[in-house]
Amino acid sequence: MALVDVLHIEDDDIDAEAVVRALAAYQDVLRIIRAADAFQALRILRGIDRLCLQPPYVVILDLQLPGMSGFELLKVLRADAQLSQSPVFVLTGSNDPVHKQQALRQQVVAYIHKNVFHTQSQRCIRLLVRYVRCRVMRPSGDPISS
After folding, report:
1. pTM of the model as a whole
2. How far is 110 from 49, CA to CA, in rounded Å?
3. What is the largest CA-CA distance in the chain?
4. Residue 66 has pLDDT above 50, yes or no
5. Pairwise CA distance, residues 39 & 43, whole Å
6. CA angle (15 as vertex; 13, 21 as ends), nearest 5
7. In CA terms, which of 40, 46, 67, 93 is 20 to 30 Å from 77?
8. Is the per-residue pLDDT at 84 higher than 90?
9. Is 54 exposed, middle or buried (0-12, 13-18, 19+ CB in 10 A)?
10. CATH of domain 4-136
11. Nearest residue to 103 via CA among 128, 113, 19, 139
C-alpha cells in the first residue's frame, strides 16, 4: 500500500511524540512529517522546505502555536488556491466551544481535544486512518492524485 503523508503541526515535543507513537502501527500507510510552527508548515506545504510533502496528504493541526496560530494558518490555507482543499484534523488543548465552532467553519475534518486523544488515542487514530483510506486512497490502495 502506498504512503500518505501526515503533516503534524505541533510545537510541543511531548504531544508530537504521542502522535508518532499512536501512528506507529500504521507506518506502512502513513509517513509523519512534523512542523514545529505554522511558518514551517507553510514552507513544507508550498514545497520550499527541505522536507518534502507529497500529495495526497492530511494535516494534524494544533491551534495554539507560537508566532502564527492554528486559526491564522487555517485562514491562509483556505485562501490559497493550491492548499484550500487540504484535509485538516485539529488536535488541540482548547475546550472553548467558540474555538471548536471557529475551526469547523474552516471546514476541518475533525476537532479532537488532546485529553480525548490521550485517553482514546486508538479510536482517534482509527478515525484518521479510516478517513485516509476512504477519502484519500482508492480502494486499490493507490493514492488519489490531487
Report:
1. 0.88
2. 27
3. 41
4. yes
5. 6
6. 100
7. 93
8. yes
9. middle
10. 3.40.50.2300
11. 113
